[in-house]
Amino acid sequence: MKYIVTVNNKKYEVEVIDSTGKEVTDNNKQQRTKETHIPSELLKCPMPGTIIDIKVNPGYSAKKGDTLFILEAMKMENEITAPRDGIIKEIQVIKGASVNTNDVLAVIE
Predict the structure, then answer these.
(1) CA geometry: angle at 80 spanning 57 and 86, to 5°?
(2) Residue in 108, 107, 109, 93 with CA at minimum distance from that of residue 48
(3) ∠ CA 48-49-50 to the nearest 5 degrees?
(4) Domain map of the chain by residue range?
C-alpha cells in the first residue's frame, strides 16, 4: 500500500512492505492488525532540569500516576509520573543526567 506522508511541510510517497519484502495489501493489513499489541509510548521530559532519582527499573509494571522519576528544575523537585498503565520497557536516562524539554526518559509498553 502506498501513502503520502508530510514531514516538515514536505510530502513523501511511502510504500509499506512486510519483513519478506512483499507489499502490504489490505488482506495482509487485516491479518497484521489482529496480531498487534498496545503500542509503546515515549515518556518525554516536560521541562529542562536534572534527573535526581529514578524510582523504577525496566520491567516494572507501572500504573497511571506512579512516580517514575524525580526531576530537579528551577530548584524544585518535580515528580514525573506514568501517563498510563504499562510495563517500563527502557529507561533512557541516568541519575544525575541533565535533560532538556522533550528528551525521552523512558519507553512504556
Answers:
(1) 50
(2) 93
(3) 145
(4) 2-35, 41-108
Sheet bearing 49-54, strands edge to edge = 76-81, 67-73, 49-54, 98-99
Which residue type occupies 45? C
Write the CA distances from 95 to 20, 36, 56, 91, integer angstroms: 41, 34, 12, 11
Q: Counting beta carbons within 10 angstroms of the beta carbon of residue 88, is it exposed (0 to 12), middle (13 to 18) or buried (19 or more)?
A: buried
Domain 41-108 belongs to what architecture?
Beta Barrel (2.40)
Distance CA 9, CA 108 (A): 29
Q: For 35-66, write each residue's pLDDT tens digit.
A: 555 678 899 999 999 999 999 999 999 999 99
